[in-house]
Amino acid sequence: MTDITDIRARSFRGACAALAALALSACATANGVGYQPADDKGFGYSDTRIESDRFRITFAGDGATPPDAVEAFALRRAAELALANGFDWFRVAGRSTDRDVKGGANIGLGFGSGSYGRGGGVGVGVGGDVGRVGAREFFTSRLEVLMGKGTPPDDPDVYDARSLLENVGGEAAPAA
Q1: What is the CA radius of gyration of the chain?
Q2: pTM greater than the 0.85 cutoff
Q3: What DSSP assignment string belongs to 60-97?
């Protein structure tokens, strides 16, 4: 006859092995989406003209695109739009970067034991939350920019469009 302790031990080892495999699979990531127009899943840049010299720009990264990359790509798109529309510089009038966590599984472990005897009983239980495994973070950067011509004003929110394009590439950095 199989002892109940052996069954519990085998079940626990199996659960630990499955948890380890899930955790390792969550570590494998790609480099993330590069600089591109938004694809059919919405990853990449999109823009809307609000006024003749004002645009709203969004860059949405996939689950492997780091937040600094989505912010840089949104600025790059603003610089491209400025030059394409005859402007020399742009001012960031508003900006935000949002984080959305999708997927994954919450993992918990529990142990229990109990006995029932004549006229009495004893029970012991222990539980805990191991955390979330396999979740992916998606970052989206949104800018509202106002564009201008001539010498850029001396303001930390103002960018020279040509200079920015020379310095901001189009490849996503590897996710950490």
Answers
A1: 26
A2: no
A3: E--TT--HHHHHHHHHHHHHHHHHHTT-SEEEEEEEEE
Query: How far is residue 171's CA from residue 176's CA, in Å, rounded to a whole number?
Result: 15
Residue type, position 123, single letter: G
Answer yes or no: are the C-beta atoms of 146 and 53 closer than 8 Å: yes
Distances (CA, A) of 130 to 49, 58, 107, 125, 133: 47, 35, 5, 16, 9
DSSP reduced 3-state for 41 = coil
Domain residue limits, the chain: 4-105+134-167
Q: Tokens standing for 95?
A: 């900006």
Separation of alpha carbons 59 and 138, rounded Å: 11
Please write the tens of the pLDDT for every residue from 94-125. 999 999 988 877 677 666 666 666 665 556 66
Rounded to a whole number, what is the largest CA-CA distance in the chain?
93
Let me know: does 159 contact 85? Beta carbons within 8 Å. Answer: no
What percentage of the chain's residues is helix, strand, coil (to nearest 5)? Answer: 30, 40, 30
With a CB cutoff of 8 Å and minimum separation 6, the contacts of 133 are 19, 22, 23, 26, 104, 105, 107
